[in-house]
Structure formats: C-alpha cells, structure tokens
Amino acid sequence: MVAHFPALLVIIPLIGAPICMLVRVRDWSWAVATICTWASFAISWLLLQQVISDGSISYQMGGWAPPIGIEYRIDMANAFVMLIVTGIGSVIMPYARESVRAEYGVRRVYFFYTSYLLCFCGLLGVAATGDAFNLFVFLEINSLATYVLVGMGKDRRALTAAYQYLVLGTIGATFIVIGIGLLYAETGTLNMYDLADRIEKVGASRTIGAAFAFLVVGISLKLALFPLHLWLPNAYTYAPSMVSAFLAATATKVAVYVLLRFLFSVFNIELTFDVLPLDYIFAALAVIAMFAASTVAIFQENLKRMLAYSSVAQIGYIVLGISLHNAAGVTASVLHLFNHAIIKGGMFLALGCIVYRLGTVNIHHLQGIGRRMPLTTAALVTGGLGLIGVPLTAGFVSKWYLVIAAIEKGWWPLGLLVLLSSLLAVVYVWRIVEVAYMKPVPENAEQVEEAPSSLLFPTFILIGASIYFGIDTDLPLDAAIETAKQLTGNGE
Amino acid sequence: MTSSTAIAFAIGVPLLGTLLILLHKRYPNIREAITLGTAATLFLIVLSILPEVLAGERPNLTFIEFLPGISIAFEVEPLGMLFAMIASGLWIVTTFYSIGYMRGHHEKNQTRFYACFAIAISSTMGICFAGNMLTLFIFYEVLTLSTYPLVAHHQSPEAKAAGRVYLGILIGTSIGFLLLAILWTWHLTGTLDFEEGGILSGKADGPLAGILLFLYMYGIGKAALMPIHRWLPAAMVAPTPVSALLHAVAVVKAGVFSVVKVIVYIFGTDFLSSIHHDDWLMYVAAFTLVAASCVALTKDNLKARLAYSTISQLSYVILGAALATSAGVLGSGMHIAMHAFGKITLFFCAGAIMVASHKTEISQMDGLGRRMPFTFIAFAIGAMCVIGLPPMGGSWSKWYLMVGSADAGHFIFIIVLIISSLLNVAYLLPIVGRGFFRPAPPETNDGNHQDHSHAGIKEAPAFCLFAMAISSAGCIALFFFADRIIKLLEPVAKAAG
C-alpha cells in the first residue's frame, strides 16, 4: 500500500470524479469530493515525510521500467507542491458546500464536484509525474476541468472568461506539446531524468534551443507571467468564489513548479541561464509585472479582479526569485509559492464570504462592511497585510529571502524594487481598509449578518496560517531550502 | 517577578488592556478605569526593571527564532529604559487628560480611541526594549499601523487625507529604505543584534557605510528629518491627546530613539566618526532644526506651530547622536526626556484651550490667559522647558548638546543651537504674552457672525487641568533631578566616548 502512494495520490481523485457523477442525491457528491481531497492530503503528507527521511521515491507505473515506462518521481520539490495543493483543497472543501450552493445551486452540483476532482487530479498528476508527455496529459486534464469550473460562475461573463481562458490555455498547451515533441525528436526519450542526461550530452543544439523556447513560453502562459497573464483577471473575477480561491492558490503554483522542473532539472542551469539569457528576460518581466499589475490593481472596483491583478504581481516576485538562479533566489521563490498560496487563498475565501451575504464585491457596495461583517473584514485585511509583507505575516518572510537573494547576487537595485513595489500593495490594501472601516454604512443598506461559520472557519484557517507561518517558519523554510538545494545543485 | 517576565508583561499588559477595553465598550466609566489601571500597572512593571539596569545588568528575553539566526528578542539597556519610563509614565497622565478632553469635546468612537492607544503604547514598549534591529522594525511598523486610526479618528475627508499622508510617508520610508538597510546589514554582518561598539565596523567600508547611513536615517521616517517631515503636521488632525502623547512623545521619540540606537549600537560612534561619510547627517539635522523653527514662526494654528517645533526639537536629538561624542549622545538621550515633558505640556494646553474655548488659531487668543490663567501658566512652563531656560529640564540637554558640539570640534553647531533657541523664544513666548497682556476682542452681539469674544469661557475640565499640573511639575522636577538621568545614561555615553 505505502509503496503505491505516488500513484494513489493521483488515482483517488481520478476515480472519485466518475463516482461524483453517479451520486446525484442532493449534494452527496460534495462528500465524495471532500473525502477524496482529504485522503490525498493525508497521502501527500506521508509522502513528504517519507521523502524527508529516505530521499526521493521512484515509482514505476504498471511495473514498466523507465525510460520506457512512465515513472513517478517524488522528491522534495513536488512533494512540497503536492502538499500545498492538497492542503489548500482540504481547507477549501468544507467551505465549498455552502458557497457553491449559493452561487451555483444544488440541482446539478455533481457536475461541479466532478470537474473539481478532475482539476485537482490534473494538478497532482502534473506535480507527481516524471514523464514529460504524461505531464502534458495531466496539464490538459487540469486545464479542461478548469475551463468548466470557471464557466460555472453566476455572472454570465463567466462564459466569456472561460472561453478566453480556453483559447489562451490551448495556445499555451500547444506550445508545451511542441516543445516536448522537439525534445523527443532530438533525444528519443520522454523521461525527465533521462532527458536531462541526454540534453547534457547534446548541448545547446538548435532543436534543444527551440524546444526550450516553446516550453518556456507555454509554461509562462500557464503561470500567467506578464505579459502572458491576460486570461487570469477575467477567470478569477467571474469564477465561483471557491474556484477563484482554489485556482489562485494552486493552479499557477503548479505551473511555477513545472517551470522550475524544466529550467533546473531537465535543462541544466548553464544552458538555461548562461547560453540563453533567460535570467535577464525573466528579471525584466518580473519587475514589470510587480509594478504594472500592482498599479492596475489599485484602480480596480471589483475586489476579486483587484486580487487577480495582485496575483499577477505576486507571480512576478516568484519569477524574480527564479531569475536570480542561486540557491537563495530559488528558496525565496518556493517559499513565496507556499506563502502566497495561503494568503491569496484566504483572501479569496474572505471575498467569497462577502459574496455569500451581499452578492457583490464591488468596492462601492462595501462601505462600512467592517461593521457589518467584522470577522470577514478582519480576515480580508489581515490577508492584505500578508500581501504587503508586514512583519510577522508569511509575506514578510518570503520578501526577506527574496531581497537577501538579490543582494547576494549583487543585484541590489532589484531588492529596492521589490520593497518599493510592495508599497503599491499598501495602496490597494488600504483602499479596502478605508472603505470598510472609515466609511459609514449607507442608510438604505440592507441588514446583513456575519457569514455562516462553515465559510468563516476555513477562511480563518488559511488567514491564521498566514500569520502562523510568518512566526514559525520552520516547515515551509526547510522544505524550500531543501528544494532549492536539490534543484540548483543539479547543474553545479 | 524576574526582569525577563517583566519585559513580557510590559508588552502584554497594554494588549490585555486593549482586549478589556473592547469588551467594555458599552460602559465608558469601566472602560476608562481599565485604561487608567493598565497604565498604572505598566508604569510599575517598567519601574521594576529599573534597579537592575542601574546596576549595570541587561535583562533580556528571547521569544522565538522565526528565521535562522534572527529572533524576536528583547534586551533592556539604559536608553530604552529611559524611554520606556517616559512613555509609560506619561500614558497615565495622558489618560487623565483624555478622559477630560474626549468627554468635553464629545468625540465619537471613543472605544476605538482607547483601544488603539493601548496598542500603540504596547508597541512603543516593544521598541524600547527591542534587542535587535528586526524586533525594533516590527514594533515600529505596528506603531505606525495602530496610530493610523487615531490620526484619521474624525473620519472626515481631511482626516482621511491626513491619514494617507501619515501612512504613506511612514510606511513608504520604512519599507523602502529601513527594511532594505536592515536586510543589507544582515547580509554584511550576519547579525542584527544591538551590540556596544556597533556591528558594522570593519564590515562596510567608506561609501557603502554612507549609503547605509542614508537608508537608515531616511528609513526612520518617524524622526521627521527634512524633507520627510510632512506626516507630522498632517497628524495634527488627530484628537489632542493623540498629538500630545503620540506625536510629541511616543511616535516621534520612537523615531529618534531608533536613530540613536542605530548610531550607537549598529554603526558604533567610533566607526561613524571614522568614515567621514556622516557629516551630511549633522548638516541636515542642523538645517532641519533651524528651518522647522522658522516655519513654526509662520504658523497661526497652535497645533501646527507645535508640530513644527517638534520637528525642530527631534533634530536636536539626531544632531547629538550624529556628533558621536560622549556628551552629544548624553544630550540626545536627555533631550528625549526633557522635550517629552515640555511638549506634552504644551499640547495639553493647546487641547485645553480647544475644549474650553474652541479656539485653534493663535491670533484668536488675545486676552485668553486672563480667562484661563492656569492653562497659560502651564503653557509658559512647558515653553520654557522646550526653549531650555532654567529652572526647567530642557536647559540641561541643550547644555550637553553644546558641550558635545565643542568636543567634536564643530563650533558651528553651538551657534546653530543658540539661534534655534532664540527662534523657540520667538514662536512660543508671544503666545503667553498675548494671553495675558493683550486686550480681549470686544463682544459682538449680532447672531450672524461667529462670536470671537471670550464671554463664558472657563478653564478646561478638571481632568485636563490635573494632567497639565503633573506634566508641568515634571518639567521643573527634571531640572533638579537631572543627575538621575545622567547616571542612568552614563554607560551609553561612556561607550560612545
């Protein structure tokens, strides 16, 4: 049983999905989805412990030896990412029941949970697999399910958002598959570890260069690196609240993992950053993302859209860490992956609570919300402090490492830029504070009470985690340092 | 109670007070009694640490190591001890004053006011006792955030605009410059602890040390060095007790206190005087000192005039520390105490005038002193303390600052200090003169115009008067008991020499 954990992790949600489809009694499908998510969480926790104690695990699908068969290779990097995905999913599921009922209805709710489980399964598959083509397959499973989930939003514009995401996502996926195809043409293998060896031997041939370019652009689209982020704001804005929270916390994070895996494990560091000047390109795009997206966030009236743009900016920080390509930089990136997942997930959940009661998150309708829904607003603002990177929140820890990494690299102006861009976060978070606490409740406002505890509780778990991991940094920090060591040590 | 637990209590008790205040929001009398009780308890706790510090010990407490090598740690040293005593002691006085003022002025949201005030004091205690730069930074930020609701208390558009300026400048400088400086220091030295003799010596050479000094000095926006002083006048829209305790004592002193800490324990005075990239700081401080006094002369609004006076006085402290001599550092430390008592008295008077007569402009105060003699006498005492005239405490700190300038060989600053003192006389004492010697404006009886006469004006509520009496008595007491402060600060000054 224990030996099959890497496969079970992916198979449980994959089997859960059709079961959801069959269980059409009220919202029993929710129960199925929750059980699958929690089981995956337990497994990924055990896997992480196993990786910490015994090193990386290789699992041969169906007993076929790599490189012919599909290999699942679990090391620190993907064990940690899977823990993030399953952990966030486990917290969000109890929230989903009420929230989805309010925003999507109960009548065909099994569609929702089926899509969710497929999306969840795709993310885990992408993270777990050690086979490049298998990765593409799971990426598509995840993407298709995500388009459906986004389209389930209450607002009719959710459909256009889903369509837009579909078009762009497909372009990204095509690029990725072209890249993988070129790699296969040049090396004759699809196993990532085998690929790494063979690419090292081949060196920077034109085919390898082209494959690299296609892969980087395709993955960058998936992780919404500026200027390939255009699908993200609409998708996050119009998707159901639970979906926004889940996607913001996990989908882009897994894409970042894929980028790390290709840049550092499959292609080696010299090829990525010395032969091809990817570090400068990434650094420039990341800085533009940090400033441009944060500035755009300031002018948004819809708070979900504001958080979406803030996500684009935060992805900028993550990519900036990657562009430094030293151990400290990758540590900062992986750390921020975790911290941002918690913070942004928590904030989207808080907005979901407001949607549940008010039906809108337009900033003009939230006057005095601090007095009407004090707990929700407190959660939202606390999350916002994390985004700014106020000390004793998780956001501070990752910024600390990012700036140290920039100084270590000798690129200290980047450190200054990171700090200055967080001032923009102060501005957009403070807009919420002013509207929520400094404006009187409008006279004709309808009476609303605090969100139900089934929504509040998960919100507070994530927001509480953003404080907890700002003070007790051991778990994410050790994992991030270990991951960075593994990834950057590969090419040195 | 050991000193370590006392440190924890000093930070925890005001927070506990906040909680109790919030729980009793429907019972104003209980709420205010809680504030008073918390303030008194805090003062006793802080005093209980004093004997050990006087004996030369450094009580410390380490909470959690939240990044490898960096923990939230506290260590009490003389400067912090002095600052903590001032802040906690004056909190009691200010609470009395607040009760009179807030009720007399019929302010809204009083629970939020008292709660945020307590958080602000808690974070001030954290700053006082911080054992490393990061701990200081954390509490510095908490102080900024917790005082924002106090500045924007009235929730009017102008209060909110002022709140934005306040937050924008303080957060902007601290995140943009101070945090970068801290990170850089960490990168260079691998430690952030406050150590005697500094930690940067030998780790940062010439120009880099100059850049770091710049980042630190302009990162600590609360020290209000020009040109990042605008937040302080903006903060004057707050209710007067806030201006009195926070924007004359806790917040601004936290700023200059951090400056002194950085100069003495991060750079080290020996190192600083050896690098020759620090002269600009003295000149900027000297410029701020004179320029702010000149601006103060032009202000007709009493609180605005006091705010600019504060900016000027803060630069005395920075100048003293930047001189990097024994007497200079001693003068700096003393001036934190002396100016605290003088300026809080002045603000108490300004608030009392506002409550009693609703007058905010100096030009409206002709003859008011005869109606409110007690207030104006207290104002005179506070003014003399700020100017530095005996028998008020302020004279000592200015004396040591001048000695420090002479020791450092910068005689020009003695002249600057004298000019500034004359300017202080010029913008403070005429207010007293107006109050007592100018004729009051005649009564106007047409109902359409605002009544500028003083008919019916009486002294402010008794709570306010009591607070003013205590603080002005403090100004005088400090003159006679200044040796106690000198004794407390001696180890710091010696290390600086």
List the helices and strands and how they pair.
The complex is a heterodimer of chains A (492) and B (497).
Chain A (H helix, E strand, L loop, with lengths): L4 H18 L5 H27 L2 E4 L10 E4 L1 H28 L5 H20 L3 H20 L5 H31 L4 H11 L3 H17 L8 H8 L2 H26 L2 H7 L2 H21 L4 H22 L2 H32 L10 H4 L1 H15 L5 H16 L2 H27 L14 H19 L2 H16 L3
Antiparallel strand pairs in A: 1-2
Chain B lengths: L2 H21 L4 H27 L5 E8 L2 E6 L2 H27 L5 H20 L3 H19 L5 H33 L16 H14 L11 H4 L5 H28 L1 H7 L3 H20 L3 H22 L2 H32 L10 H4 L1 H15 L6 H15 L3 H26 L24 H19 L1 H15 L1
Antiparallel strand pairs in B: 1-2
Helix pairs in contact in B: 1-2, 1-4, 2-3, 3-4, 3-9, 3-13, 3-18, 4-5, 4-9, 5-6, 5-9, 6-7, 9-10, 9-12, 9-13, 11-12, 11-17, 12-13, 12-16, 12-17, 13-15, 13-16, 13-18, 13-19, 15-17, 15-18, 16-17
Question: Would you kindly provide a written description of the structure presented here, covering whatever features stand out?
Answer:
The complex is a heterodimer of chains A (492) and B (497). Chain A has 20 helices and two strands. With 492 residues, chain A is mostly helical. Chain A has a domain of 216 residues. Chain A starts with a helix and ends with a helix. Chain B has 497 residues and is an all-alpha fold. Chain B has a domain of 207 residues. Chain B is built from 19 helices and two strands. A two-stranded antiparallel sheet of chain B has the order 1-2. Chain B is globular, with a radius of gyration of 22 Å. The mean pLDDT of chain B is 86. Classes of the chains: A mainly alpha (492), B mainly alpha (497). Chains A and B meet through helix 17 and helix 18 of A and strand 1, helix 5 and helix 6 of B.
Which key features would you list for this structure?
heterodimer, A: 492 residues, mainly alpha, two-stranded antiparallel sheet, 20 helices, 2 strands, globular, B: 497 residues, 19 helices, 74% helix
Assign a percent range to the helix content of chain A.
Answer: over 70%
Shape of chain A: globular
Radius of gyration of chain B: 22 Å
Structural class of chain B: mainly alpha
